[in-house]
Amino acid sequence: MKSIEETEKEVIENFALFGDDWEAKYEFLIDLGKSLPSMNEKFKDEQHLIKGCQSKVWLMSEMREGRLWFCADSDAIITKGIIALLIHVLNGQSPSAIAKAPMSFIETTGLSSHLSPTRANGLLSMIRQMKLDAIAHLAKTKND
Amino acid sequence: MSVLNVSNNTSAFAQRVRSDFPFLKRTINGKPCVYFDNAATTQKPQSVIDIVADFYTHHCANVHRGVHTLSQEATLMLEGARKKTADFIHASTDEIIFTSGTTASINMVANAFAERDLRGKSILVSRMEHHSNLLPWMELCKKKDIGLIVADFNENGELSLEQLKELFRSNDVALVCITHISNTLGTINPVEDICSIAHDYGAEVLIDGAQAVMHASPDMQKIPADYYCFGAHKMFGPSGVGVLFVRKEKVENFPVFHHGGGTITEVRLDHVSYASGPARLEAGTPNIEGIIGMGAAIDFINELGRDSILSHEQCLFDSAIKMLQEFPELKILGGAKNRCALISVYSPRFHPSDLGTLLDQQGIAIRTGHHCTQPLMQHFGIPGTARISFAAYNNAEEIEVLRQALKKSLRMLL
Fold this sequence. Notes:
The complex is a heterodimer of chains A (144) and B (414).
Chain A: H1 4-16, H2 22-35, E1 57-64, E2 67-74, H3 77-90, H4 95-99, H5 105-108, H6 123-143
Chain B: H1 8-18, E1 27-28, E2 31-32, E3 34-35, H2 46-59, H3 69-88, E4 96-99, H4 102-114, E5 122-126, H5 135-144, E6 147-151, H6 161-170, E7 173-179, H7 191-200, E8 204-208, H8 212-215, E9 227-231, E10 242-246, H9 248-251, E11 264-268, E12 271-274, H10 288-304, H11 306-325, E13 331-332, E14 342-346, H12 352-361, E15 364-365, E16 367-369, H13 374-380, E17 385-389, H14 396-413
Parallel strand pairs in B: 3-15, 5-6, 5-7, 7-8, 8-9
Antiparallel strand pairs in B: 1-2, 4-10, 9-10, 11-12, 13-14, 14-17, 16-17
Helix pairs in contact in B: 2-10, 3-10, 4-5, 6-7, 11-14, 12-14
């Protein structure tokens, strides 16, 4: 399995192909959003809702054989595309790798405008929650 | 029909206005900026920017308490702005209390009511209120253990005077708190009628004029409200400054909310004598440059002519409605007979934030979300809308740019 850094590098290379073509970039994100399977409605509850997003974002994670797997959904398609990208980078990695993942691709791909700490969008909240999940699972593993 | 058919007079007017706004020269994502988020805040004309800079460059001093030249200049500038503000809404200077904004003004009134005996009374609001004209009353009602009565609107987003009368008949209403123009629907509420009905039933009235101050020329001689609240930043003025208009007969007994410097005639350790007039209610150093900036914004609006601004905005509104109706995917929220200045659209097929993001990429600033009116959104069963809102500097070309950008965005989203 590729490391987080390797996947990030691939994402950066893919995004570089878009150049200044915002339409292609957003069409890609929209397609990614559409391709991410919808989350089971019963999990779209308060417990899995990420606070701080203008659109609704739900996130769940589970540990399988020492690796963390995410499942997420959003009622906004571009937001869902961005989550799909985050999942693509972090899914199936060890919690310790996720907790310290640099996520530098956000800046390099020009997605950082979605990272501004405004109340309007929640990329920052999503990344924080994914890392918090990793830390929580890590702590749980140590205690077990 | 092309929106470019908007009369030439209107285009010439916008052209003249645009030359006063340096902001409009900038680009967003490599494209000329089209600013349609005026209901959130407006851009500032050069004269407002200049006067704020001029204050700091040449006149900076504290007001009201200095005998030196600078303090007297600053005081004259500030009190001059009070006079301009009073004239702007046809009030007297004693009725103009400077605050930090509409929200602060509403909270001051809520705090005044918190000091009253309200047992058995209730507060009446509408379902279209901005959270700033809702939360202070929800909290007051909770604190005083009294009822919050909510007036509904019809499918067009209009309040019913008959329903209001019924609510007055069946409740002992102390205060009605209603917006003059809905920041989400654009509905212009019949505030004169609401005031007179409320007064017939012995209730006082607070009007949230945050949107209306720019788009409805509120006149305190025609609107018999007891309290009228607005800010400067939605009318080309600086942020952080607002007004609480309190009708003359109420102002002397209006309880002091902020205690502090500038509000007194004498302080002894066992007794305080408060000043009369607005000074009593404006503790601490005010936002001097903001207030002076608001005065300059009022001058700017008066020079353009309020009727010219309103008729230009109405042209923009009408052509934008026509343009939006070309997109069957977009639903327009509300449809009041009297509405202006802003249009909310939504689609069951995508989230408004997706549309906002794609329009931003094309240099267009609109607002997406619940616009701080969540009970209204819950009524319509939608998460939010995309809101397009106008100011005097917008023009027909920008509506055409929006049409093209919407076409592209909807193709991408659907």
